[in-house]
Design goal:
eight-stranded mixed β-sheet, 10 strands, two-stranded antiparallel ribbon, alpha/beta, Rossmann fold
């Protein structure tokens, strides 16, 4: 895949593109990952025109302006701006984790432009009950005010950054091989005096101001009109247990669930298997 730069109202969005001539597919990565997340699958998806972007605040893309919050819903217009810049009136969405959450919201919000939804390890949004609204907002505001005093950690070399990323992983079954971690880390750091620091916006680690209720999230899934393939790893991750993810898929008017053995980054750990499932679905 070659690197491209896409100019949007926000600023420059960087991406990796395979220059395929077929189905137009926009790929969105997970939280604190970047476009390199889709590099292992790219050789198996040559029949697609695959564009994997660095979402705002990630990889080499522009950060959101000060005072603007990172959220699933907040990313929708940026994704549409990227599609506009590519000249894509309609396209398929391929998302992993956070990117899958954003993709499923966009499929509901802008159905006339989305041909199909391909979601890996997430569907819909994170939810909570309405009675937690004030507590969440207080915690988020306090965290935002404290962030201004935070300094970026500087790593002397890439290998140290790779080890730090590996040690920070908390999801079960998600210890990526060094080769896979290197893809993410090399695209996710920037040179600074004394070594390297994460290029991602530190505000990405802050709690969001609000979350949807279950009713709101369900309503969106019920309005995803396009064909949708949802791929989850087995065993299920703590943030979305198996019964809940199956319940969500059942809300989709044209949804199909595939469960494959693997961890949270199964599209990197088993790229050929996941790619085969995606291709089979879109070919009908």
């Amino acid at each position: 895949m070659r690197e491209i730069k896409i100019e949007t109202p926000l600023g420059t969005i960087t991406a990796l593109r395979n220059d395929g001539k077929g189905r137009r597919v926009l790929a969105l990565h997970g939280w604190l990952d970047n476009a390199a997340s889709f590099v292992p699958m790219a050789p198996y998806l040559r029949e697609w025109d695959l564009v994997a972007i660095d979402l705002p605040g990630h990889g080499r893309s522009a950060h959101l302006p000060r005072g603007v919050e990172y959220s699933f819903a907040g990313a929708l217009n940026c994704v549409l701006d990227v599609a506009d810049a590519l000249g894509w009136d309609s396209f398929t969405l391929l998302g992993h984790s956070m990117g899958a959450g954003i993709s499923s919201l966009l499929a509901a919000a802008c159905p006339e432009r989305i041909e199909a939804l391909l979601a890996i390890e997430m569907l819909g949004s994170l939810v909570e009950t309405a009675d937690h609204t004030a507590v969440r907002m207080r915690e988020a505001v306090a965290a935002q005010r404290q962030l201004k005093d935070k300094r970026l950690r500087v790593f002397p070399d890439i290998e140290t950054a790779i080890r730090a990323r590996q040690q920070a992983e908390r999801l079960p079954g998600n210890k990526l091989e060094e080769e896979m971690l290197r893809l993410l880390v090399e695209r996710g750091v920037q040179a600074v005096p004394g070594g390297f620091a994460w290029s991602s916006d530190p505000r990405l680690t802050l709690p969001t101001l609000t979350r949807m209720t279950i009713g709101q999230a369900d309503n969106l899934l019920q309005h995803v009109d396009c064909p949708a393939l949802i791929v989850f790893g087995d065993p299920a991750q703590p943030y979305l247990q198996d019964a809940e993810r199956r319940r969500r898929v059942a809300l989709l008017p044209k949804g199909r669930l595939v469960v494959l053995p693997g961890g949270h980054h199964l599209h990197m750990q088993q790229p050929q298997t996941v790619a085969a499932a995606l291709l089979e679905f879109v070919r009908g």
